[in-house]
Every structure is written in structure tokens, then in C-alpha cells.
Design brief:
218 residues; alpha/beta; TIM Barrel; 8-stranded parallel β-barrel; 40% helix; 17% strand; Aldolase_TIM; transferase; Thiamine-phosphate synthase; TMP_synthase
Length: 218
């Protein structure tokens, strides 16, 4: 897989409420079948008994689909499960700490919210991708800071790293973020909150097709 393909497409994020332990493997497999290129394992529960074993099973699904598995926040879980990398927010470990623990080949993404300077700093320090958002109202993080699509256009001109857009993204509004410069669309509810996860994943993945984007009206 080329670096361009590795970081282009649908970035599906699991959620402990939408993805209960007894269903998460089936749900992740459906998202991957629909075309997700990255799965982020995100579990904010206090008690996560058995999650390492579960993450290892998710990793098998991702590797079978030639997709990446990223762990939200938890460097030690990423290390123990042999996931491909970790995603860091402002209250998590630093990028340098994550790199030291996970090694030079690990994929490390950084949330930059609506701040271009944070993305520039992360890129300079070796982040593999930077994420901006929220771009639209989000039920997962209703109080998250708002970002404008113009931020993606500015980042595209100055940052030579893949750009991830997140926050309230759906099939109906995602194309405008791709047009603005997003390499990946990160979603939770628009995939794992849908009755047909594979179909939802396929529709979002299709936004990255030139023909599909040409059919969208902004």
C-alpha cells in the first residue's frame, strides 16, 4: 500500500456505547468490508477488562483488510496489543513520549482542534497525521471547539502531512471537507451508529471517488 493510499479514505472510530464488547468485532469487520482504511479503538470506560485481547482480534481484522489500527490515548495498550499506533489529544502523553515508547515505525496522530499552529508543531515533531475538528455539531463531543473548512485549505498549503477531519461528519456533508483538503474523514456515529454499518462505511468511502465527488453539490 502506498503512503497516499494508507492515509486516504474513511477513518472509523469505535465507541464503547455504540460498540459493546459482544458486538465490536462484527461491527469493525463490517466497517472494514465497507472500505474503512483506519480503525481507531476508542474506549472511555473506567474498567476495560479484557480489552487487550479484544484489540488483538481487531488488529487481525485490520491486517486482513490491509487497514491500520490506531489506539485512542493509550500508549501502553497500543504497545501491548501491537497495534499500528496511537492517537493523542491535548490531555494525553506528548508526541515525543509516544514515539519513545512505540518506536520509529508507529503511526502517531495528533488532535489539533482548530489551531493551525498546533498542527505545524506536531508535523515538525514527527506526527504521521494531524486531525482538525469538530466541523459540524457532534453528539459524541457536543462541547468541542468548532473548526472551519477553510482551516483545512490553509493546512493543505503549509503542512506536508495527511489531514484528518472529524466532528459531526456524514455522507451528506463530508465531500466539502475533502474538497477543502481533508485526506481522511473520521467518524463515529455515521458508521457505528447506523443500522447497516457496512453500507454506511461504503457510502462514506465512496466520497473519495472522483466520480462521487463530482456528483455532489455544495
Amino acid at each position: 500500500m502506498s503512503e497516499t493510499d494508507r492515509y486516504r479514505g474513511l477513518y472509523a472510530i469505535t465507541d464503547s456505547q455504540l460498540c459493546p464488547p459482544e458486538r465490536i468485532l462484527q461491527q469493525v469487520e463490517a466497517a472494514l468490508t465497507g472500505g474503512a482504511r483506519i480503525i481507531q479503538y476508542r474506549d472511555k470506560r473506567q474498567q476495560r477488562t479484557g480489552c487487550e485481547m479484544q484489540v488483538r482480534e481487531i488488529l487481525k481484522l485490520c491486517e486482513r483488510a490491509n487497514a491500520l489500527l490506531i489506539i485512542n490515548d493509550d500508549i501502553e495498550l497500543a504497545l501491548a496489543s501491537k497495534a499500528h499506533g496511537v492517537h493523542l489529544g491535548r490531555e494525553d502523553a506528548t508526541l515525543s513520549e509516544a514515539r519513545a515508547r512505540l518506536g520509529p515505525t508507529a503511526v502517531i496522530g495528533v488532535s489539533c482542534y482548530n489551531r493551525l499552529e498546533l498542527a505545524s508543531e506536531a508535523a515538525e515533531k514527527g506526527a504521521d497525521y494531524v486531525a482538525f475538528g469538530r466541523f459540524f455539531p457532534s453528539r459524541t463531543k457536543p462541547d468541542a471547539v468548532s473548526a472551519d473548512p477553510e482551516l483545512l485549505a490553509s493546512a493543505r498549503e503549509t503542512i506536508r502531512k495527511p489531514l484528518v477531519a472529524i466532528g459531526g461528519i456524514t455522507h451528506e456533508n463530508g465531500a466539502q471537507l475533502i474538497a477543502a483538503g481533508a485526506d481522511m474523514l473520521a467518524v463515529i456515529e455515521a458508521v457505528f451508529g447506523q443500522p447497516d454499518i457496512e453500507a454506511a462505511s461504503r457510502r462514506l468511502s465512496a466520497l473519495f471517488s472522483p466520480q462521487e465527488n463530482n456528483n455532489e453539490s455544495f
